[in-house]
Amino acid sequence: MSLKNEEAEVIIKVKRYTQEKGFYWQEYKLKVDRFTQFTEALRRIKSEQDPTLAYRASCHMAVCGSCGMKINGEPKLACKTLVLDVIKKYGSNVITIEPMDYFKPVKDLVVDLDDFYNRMHKVKPRLYPSNEVLEGKAEHRLKPEDQKVLWKFAQCIWCGLCVSACPAVQEDPEFLGPAAHAKGFRFLADPRDTITEERLKILIDSAWRCTYCYMCYNVCPRDIEPVTAIKKTRAFSRLAKDKTEVIKTGEKHTEAVHSSIFDSGKIMGSRVYLSTYGLLGSMKEMIFLMQSGKLKYALVKEKAVENIQEVRKLLRG
Ligand code: SF4
Ligand code: SF4
Ligand code: FES
Q1: Residue span of the structural domain in which 167 resides
Q2: 13-22 pLDDT, tens per residue?
Q3: What is the pTM for the complete model shown?
């Protein structure tokens, strides 16, 4: 690896795709300096070496959200990622670029985002103000403290990186996905909005389907923390009418974890399972644990932590 004068020759291996050939890899060699982002590297490859290479990019400044892709396996915005930084991080001049996971490929690094946009539109991503405001008879100002809560979640650039990295989206067709939840919470929590009941119906069941793996937190280029939006949305469950089984189970699980920590300072696995899933549901899980040889861990008798009063003080806030 050579980084002479903050310049380097790099081999970029692109995972390409066409409907006729399927996926295949192609290598390109080029010189980069300390200012070369991946969108610039791809622009030079396309204009100087191979006009058939397809990728999306527009703003080149992390605003339009069109250049999401996997760089050395990590979901990234190509315009926000410098080639030299990746060479330094991985200690290699050979870098792979692939289309984002989960989405259907269209051509090379371009993926079909229809599914992503459908999810975003399902949460009604705009404010529904009151009639008085719409008719110009009233003004509804947002207080600075409310704006502070909403600001983070309004910064989404619809890049799709969090969805491409989310295991729950891939497994559960009823889950709206991290970006839609960030957007949904931004309007659910807006005191000027008038369709709270409808939003609760759209968001609450889905919010309990997240597995809290934090991948969306790790990959979001705007530090939006979609998982935080999901946690905050769950707190609205108490307002939901006609609760689904998923919501009821989620609420039971939260209560079970809370009471286990309150009593012992720890999450007692078997006790939490019993309270959440009942005897029958827990027995199914026990059979699974027995088959996988993990039952002994579930049955370990945990000692309560010392100074439990301190833990309880924390829980009471
Ligand atoms: S924390 Fe939830 S929304 Fe975020 S990536 Fe994991 S499962 Fe998906
Ligand atoms: S939440 Fe972040 S990663 Fe997800 S679409 Fe919005 S900006 Fe992209
Ligand atoms: S080109 Fe617009 S976000 Fe990267």
Answers
A1: 114-239
A2: 999 999 999 9
A3: 0.90
